Amino acid sequence: MSQKLMIIDTDCGIDDAQAIMLALASSNVKILGITCCFGNTDVDNVCQNVLRVLSVCQRTQIPVFRGAASCLVGATNPFKDHFGTDGLGDVLQDRDSDTWKTQIQKEHAVNSLIRLVSEHPGQVSLVALGPLTNLALAVRLDPSIPQKLKDLYIMGGNMEGKGNLMPCAEFNFCMDPESSYIVLEEYLCPTHIATWEFTCRNKLSWEFFDELIAQDTAAARFMKTITSKCWAFSQEPGRNAKDVLFGSGFVPYDAYAVAACVDGSVITESVECSVRVEIQGELGRGMMALDFLGKLKSHRVFVMKTCNLTKFSSMLMASLQQP
Amino acid sequence: MSQKLMIIDTDCGIDDAQAIMLALASSNVKILGITCCFGNTDVDNVCQNVLRVLSVCQRTQIPVFRGAASCLVGATNPFKDHFGTDGLGDVLQDRDSDTWKTQIQKEHAVNSLIRLVSEHPGQVSLVALGPLTNLALAVRLDPSIPQKLKDLYIMGGNMEGKGNLMPCAEFNFCMDPESSYIVLEEYLCPTHIATWEFTCRNKLSWEFFDELIAQDTAAARFMKTITSKCWAFSQEPGRNAKDVLFGSGFVPYDAYAVAACVDGSVITESVECSVRVEIQGELGRGMMALDFLGKLKSHRVFVMKTCNLTKFSSMLMASLQQP
Amino acid sequence: MSQKLMIIDTDCGIDDAQAIMLALASSNVKILGITCCFGNTDVDNVCQNVLRVLSVCQRTQIPVFRGAASCLVGATNPFKDHFGTDGLGDVLQDRDSDTWKTQIQKEHAVNSLIRLVSEHPGQVSLVALGPLTNLALAVRLDPSIPQKLKDLYIMGGNMEGKGNLMPCAEFNFCMDPESSYIVLEEYLCPTHIATWEFTCRNKLSWEFFDELIAQDTAAARFMKTITSKCWAFSQEPGRNAKDVLFGSGFVPYDAYAVAACVDGSVITESVECSVRVEIQGELGRGMMALDFLGKLKSHRVFVMKTCNLTKFSSMLMASLQQP
Amino acid sequence: MSQKLMIIDTDCGIDDAQAIMLALASSNVKILGITCCFGNTDVDNVCQNVLRVLSVCQRTQIPVFRGAASCLVGATNPFKDHFGTDGLGDVLQDRDSDTWKTQIQKEHAVNSLIRLVSEHPGQVSLVALGPLTNLALAVRLDPSIPQKLKDLYIMGGNMEGKGNLMPCAEFNFCMDPESSYIVLEEYLCPTHIATWEFTCRNKLSWEFFDELIAQDTAAARFMKTITSKCWAFSQEPGRNAKDVLFGSGFVPYDAYAVAACVDGSVITESVECSVRVEIQGELGRGMMALDFLGKLKSHRVFVMKTCNLTKFSSMLMASLQQP
Fold first, then answer.
1. Domain range holding B69?
2. pLDDT band at residue D233, thresholds of 50, 70 and 90?
3. Are D143 and A76 in contact (CB under 8 A)?
4. Domain count, chain A
5. Using the beta-carbon criterion (under 8 Å), do A108 and D141 form an inter-chain contact?
6. Other CB atoms closer than 10 Å to residue A49's CB: what's the count?
7. How far is C274 from C301, CA to CA, in rounded Å?
8. Which of A297, C186, C302, D322 is the most exposed place for a label (fewest CB within 10 A)?
9. A31-66: per-residue pLDDT in tens?
10. Where are the beta strands (DSSP E) in C47-163?
11. pTM for this structure?
12. C-alpha torsion angle, residues C228, C230, C233, C235 (rounded to 10)
């Protein structure tokens, strides 16, 4: 069987690191490049985080590109510290070194996206794990990009009017509403979305997480290290009583989108419907709307509903058996 | 036990008629007045519909007041024909007669609201079943009204980002977003909301509906008549396979709000949280946002979640045993 | 010649006081009532200010009505202190007394507007000198009011994209953008607007102001008193070098609108065009747009351009020769 | 004296053609490149138009780059036909040929902008004559571009709340409000703006226009040809009685911006103030707001007020004495 060609666009925080490792561990996937975007932390930290993940997994030959440092229109929201200020739990050393700059490609992420997709028309799966700024800029520089993609997987948006950054809006979409709007309106390739509520409603147990990071591999030790401080609560007695909306548990957000791309059978139910991102309003801005009324003639996408947790768990477990 | 004092504000369609009958049938409730608002149909039809319901139930001594004919700001949405163009299924005769004008009170609904509430400070339960225009105008003319109310029950809004008039917005709120916004921001009395999703998720069966309207009373015959044409599908084989989001069934929308006011034990679970209505945006406008993040310092209300369907069914059944 | 019937709606600050005196001094005008609105100061101060002006002019038989205390939608802007916190220069005594409450009519300003206009259909000139909240509420309670008016004079809005409260929006309109929008869309009677730029471009000299308040009458002494503190700069050497946009001078804002109503020949040039108030946006909100492109099919009004300053000066001078 | 280095970003219509010729005729200017943007017509037509102008002036060695084909966010406005559907008066032949594609640079306009400016830090004057999409994309791909520019000249925006595409908004800004917003917020280099009202208030006579295009040169003949059809009215008796707002006359819009860049003394008065573009609202969207109140802490720019028409006329006359 031929390999899937994948490009990952990421704002590399802890869950992105996990998601990238899942892709790296997939034997049927060839990663053409990883493009970086601001989001969980600033884009310079994101570049360093991706390089670090590749280094841990001994896959440094994969090119990494620096992309957007801010959202498309208006002032950029402050970064949230869910994964520490550096995005990987604030425990890694050598942040001050500039050697990473020699390891980043000279080409801008947006230009690399356009080039790599154009070199493999109809073959590339694009997986977007952060704000969608690089994708929006790419379609502005080359409007033919969406039709050259094989498909698009997105972690972002919401589907029950519930959000995490704002009452009705999810972090990735809310960090750049205009780019989210543009991507959903103009990337008319087959599109699969792992919303925030989807990931929360398909959570894993903290007991599984314990097992996951207890493996005796470089990747598992790395994951244990970067979660040691900012997810300290996950080692505490109360860890199973946190979230009021969805209950408590281990939710490796971005990993669902990568898993769905690697093996479509991980997603056991999706709903196909028109979607649009609201860009106006104090509360609506950044919210993804699902249209079941037929009011919108907008892009029909696949919104994930349920996940085969057994299969997904296996993939996660295998992903940390590297290198 | 002393009687509850109730004012009903309504855009009287079929479900409002059912809801009003439920209140009329409650021995512990005294209805001080019914105020009319545009919504399911124009306000003149609404006035006639309310008078007709009172006539059927032989309760014509209850004063009926004409109120807002349009939304607060901007052009009013066209009326939807869910309940026919006249709001009561387009089957009633005598629409051309002007005798109803002699039966309507001279006082404007907004002034009557202010007067009736002020005459019974702390005692009146206000039940709002249509667009909230009359309530918004009342608080502008007399800002002390909310604090003089005992409590407020609203059928309207949404709680899962799903709507019926628009992808994310429910009919009553969407017909006048600014008034919905004003009422939720300024009516700081205890407030209970029956959202669209709540009513849909607590539906009854069409078999119950058959039984309900088969009773040998004037009220049941009236309900059978007004549902005969516009709910014709409910007498067809496919009636149990309609709605994709919530399944199919009989949902007497406004009746949940009245029932909750008449007997609080009908509602078995509510969630208390801050809410706000979005008034901007193509998709957000008219949507009610629930804040579980603590971002909004807005009014905390009780959003209904589950209903004791046995008790509610009994109340509905009794409501048509009139007069 | 028969008398003009006039209702004045005001947020009585110093310029409103001057404008009311101009109306009181006009022998061909009968003032049916004065309705009060928040604006330059809170509505209770406005009521007291109007009563004080009528008292100074010995015209206390004119009924005064209390109206809107806040804008139609959303939080009310803080009052600006251009005319002091009490609206009349913070120099008057007896603010703590409650006797004014006995002098205010019991009827709400909005109801009085509806009643007075309905009692004299086609005869009443309405002059609006503050935020347009009372007018907006009146048309919501009785949509027939605009067609029963003879005409409408407004001080408010802007016509060159320049504002005083905001970069593009004038105080009266900006204090309640939704009400301004409603009034311009729905008051389809002949409408004459004295914008902020119009008043500034038709300014009088500070020397004229000196002469005006130096007259030996109760009214002139009152005007001298209330301008003594907050317009202290007008007695200083630099008084002729203040404003960068329009030069310096004495601009009795609201008095232009009353003068235009009393004697139409005071306005020597107007432009008739469609107008609309923008209600959205950080910068556009509250701005009045003039349409010379034919894009808007909205209300065509008369926007004042030039004023016969000789005639206007005489009217002002005469207005302080009371009682 | 050393040459000024200039990049022209254009949506080449008739006035852009005139403006480019003015730059070409300036002996002290070296044009590093011309970047193309949609606007007066689609970006393919714009490319062809620029190449045609360079050909007429025998300056085909100047590189031309294709840029944005649509606005940054949302659907692009239909092109207006003020200069014909092809932007140059619908009179030129050979539109169907594809040879122009071989003459356009391979590099995208946005990348060329970044490269050319970075190669000459602090030395390049950028003159923007169309929608500002290319400039907005450039600063997103390389946030350091604005500080590397010498200065920026823009034809666009409005300063009296009057527009041509919309009642309050000028064509170039209104065709891409978000890009206009971004450029004015983030291009913090010295910025000079020729607004629509500025150009209209500094119009030339149609008699001058007659003289201008009557010159016996290739450039003048070209200008005569492309204006022959769509400006046919300018050869008619009524040509001096067209515009209600600003009177009638010959207004070579974009040429003012180029002239100001070539020779700063052409502009005899400017006002320095904070500006911001409104991006929301039916009427405000695309409007440039000038802040004389100190409310905005935004970018202070030089808004042109008056022009030395004698000097400007001479430059225009000389610009058509090519080649």
1. 4-320
2. confident
3. no
4. 1
5. yes
6. 29
7. 6
8. A297
9. 999 999 999 999 999 999 999 999 999 999 999 999
10. 64-66, 124-128, 149-155
11. 0.96
12. -10
